[in-house]
Fold this sequence. Notes:
Blueprint: E1 2-6, H1 10-24, E2 32-36, H2 39-45, E3 51-55, E4 57-58, E5 61-62, H3 63-73, E6 78-83, H4 89-94, E7 99-102, H5 107-123, E8 126-130, E9 136-140, E10 144-150, E11 153-158, E12 162-165, H6 169-175, E13 181-183, E14 188-191, E15 195-199, E16 202-205, E17 210-212, H7 218-231
Helix pairs in contact: 1-5
Amino acid sequence: MKIALIEDNRAEAEWLKEQVEIKISQLFHISAFDLFSSIEEYLDANKNYELYFIDCVLTDGNGTDLAKTIREKNSGASIIFTTSYLDYATKGYESNALRYLLKPISEEALEEAIKAFAQQKKQFPVVELTGTARYSDFVPQTEILYIEYVDRKVLCRLEDRFVETTKTMREFEDELSSELFFRTSRSFLVNFFHIAKKTDNTLIMRNGEHVTISRRNLFSFNQAYIQFLKRG
């Protein structure tokens, strides 16, 4: 898990980082936890994270505006706001914030926020799309139409774009929910949810694109898809 803390008060940032590390590490592995003292510093880093702690009032701008920018590029991110001003609560929830922590932050409030994050992660699991550079996207699994292996590249098809990733098809197959995704062939890993129609060995996705099912996987696909429809 990758976490970002955007806070211009050094003492508050260090305390919050220490507390979050203690509580989150009991639930998830933290692969990166970066501190940023300003909006500019965060934007210059050009990175995405799965979980954000953002102060609503920063020296160079408004944290709620930054959250909207983050949300445009990283739809799967979880955002927790921190601030001393209650007036920002409404603006914070406009960005679909998970929680709003009023300073000084109590350990009890922080624990509740982290429990909410863990529950959200369980209900709406997010997958990291590790980019070909250092950049990553975090997206809910439900937003992935399919993963495709083509021309020695692994591409993730989202509703509005393709994302080229350094992950292998096997890594995606192991990470994505087996109740939601099926490996139809060597080239495709498909999300049941986005299938509009099946004809013979071809799937027509909701966006009109076609995905093939190999002959050897056809029977297993039919069985798995029936189970998915029964659950739905």
